[in-house]
Specification:
Blueprint (H helix, E strand, L loop, with lengths): L1 E4 L6 H18 L11 H6 L6 E8 L11 E10 L2 E8 L8 H15 L4 E7 L3 H8 L3 E12 L5 H8 L6 E7 L7 H10 L15 H13 L2 E10 L5 E10 L5 E9 L8 H16 L5 E7 L3 H10 L2 E12 H10 L2
Parallel strand pairs: 4-5, 10-11
Antiparallel strand pairs: 1-2, 2-3, 3-4, 5-12, 6-11, 6-12, 7-8, 8-9, 9-10
The chain binds coenzyme A (COA).
């Protein structure tokens, strides 16, 4: 049975059951990824940016002999933002190939259509069943990135210390746990606005104006995700010349996510990219002693960034693809095939 589900008011048993399914999916599809924990999972599933909405549904298995609710074997949510619905679907490995995934997509797609949105986007991990699944539903591949993972156990720390100090004269680096300080928010947003199409941020919306940036930091905190930032400041102008962002999620605190890394055009060629990333890893080593890995996503064409990541010890892991489909066509196709 598929029913609409609100993680804000869901029972703790339901949250635990979603977590079990998520971890069974990870074990089947991405066995090297750390399992998720329940810490702030409810908030992770509920909290959104102002102006965005997330709608969720679950599919329950049969009730137990004592009438207790069945386990949650499938979960779908769609995040409505701008003119697109961003979809995420999970089906427990033991419940796959029975049409449940298709049913969950149809349920969400109908709502997205009713809400007046035109397209649906989804992130699809390369070399998993999701590729054939979304292609069978008519989704088209729009964009491919490579995920790379750095095992902190393999890092050459003395070499990294040298890299962190290798920034050109006239710049200094600043470590900002929690987010940029308030007096630098405007300069920070300007740096992000200037380089909106250059770095890793393609699959996740970046924040370009100060208010949106504040909202985005606030949303991260509410979702249990702790941001860390290293800035390169241009001493002469006070400009943010470069920045790198890493987030440590309460749900999988042993593996952090690298978000944007930006070096503003006028400040390229001074070793900022390498230095800010190296400094970040050094800081994380003491700020998050249980952290074991960092993962990052890069466009395959972004050779400069890939080269620096390789020097730091990142190893390419999987293709990470963005697919999309026209909602009306999807609903029509799925209804016609029923
Ligand atoms: C992708 C996923 C949702 C599919 O769920 P499902 O319930 O097995 O899908 P369905 O049974 O509705 O399959 C619909 C169609 O998709 C295609 N398909 C699905 N899985 C497939 C596979 N492993 N190989 C080939 N085709 C597949 C088939 O055409 C299938 O139709 P058929 O069974 O009649 O041939 C499920 O595998 C899943 O949860 N994957 C994890 C997704 C994810 O986001 N992971 C993130 C962390 S890795």
């Amino acid at each position: 049975m598929v029913r609409e589900w609100d993680p804000r008011t869901a029972s703790s048993d339901e949250i635990a059951s979603v977590l079990d399914t998520l971890n069974a999916v990870l074990a089947a599809d991405l066995p090297q990824d750390p399992p998720w924990r329940e810490n702030s999972l409810r908030e992770y599933l509920s909290e959104v940016m102002p102006g965005e909405r997330r709608i969720s549904w679950v599919a329950e298995g049969d009730p137990g002999p004592d009438g207790a609710p069945g386990p949650i074997l499938g979960h779908v949510h769609v995040l409505l933002l701008g003119d697109i619905g961003v979809l995420e679907v999970l089906v427990h490995p033991e419940a796959r190939r029975t049409g449940l995934g298709r049913q969950l997509v149809l349920t969400a797609a109908r709502r997205v259509y009713q809400e007046g949105f035109r397209s649906i986007g989804v992130e699809v991990v390369g070399d998993t069943p999701a590729v054939a699944f979304y292609e069978s539903l008519g989704f088209l591949r729009e964009y491919v990135e490579t995920r790379s993972v750095l095992d902190l156990g393999t890092v050459d720390w003395p070499a990294l210390t040298e890299m962190a100090g290798g920034v050109g004269a006239g710049y200094h680096l600043e470590f900002c746990p929690g987010g940029p300080p308030d007096d630098l928010i405007e300069a920070y947003a300007r740096a992000k606005a200037e380089v909106r199409d250059v770095d890793d941020g393609e699959l996740r919306p970046s924040s370009y104006d100060p208010q949106r940036l504040r909202d985005s930091l606030d949303t991260l905190h509410r979702r249990g995700m702790k941001p860390y930032i290293v800035l390169a400041l241009h001493e002469q102008t006070g400009q943010v010349a470069g920045l790198t962002e890493v987030v440590v999620p309460a749900q999988h605190p042993t593996r952090a996510d690298q978000y944007d890394t930006i070096v503003v055009q006028d400040h390229r060629g001074y070793g900022i990219d390498r230095a800010i990333k190296a400094r970040m890893l050094l800081e994380l080593r003491s700020a998050e002693p249980t952290l074991g890995e960092v993962q990052t996503w890069n466009a395959q064409a972004n050779e400069a960034m890939l080269k620096v990541n390789a020097e730091l010890g990142y190893r390419p892991d999987r293709e990470w693809c963005e697919y999309s489909v026209d909602v009306a066509e999807l609903v029509h196709r799925l209804d016609a095939s029923r």
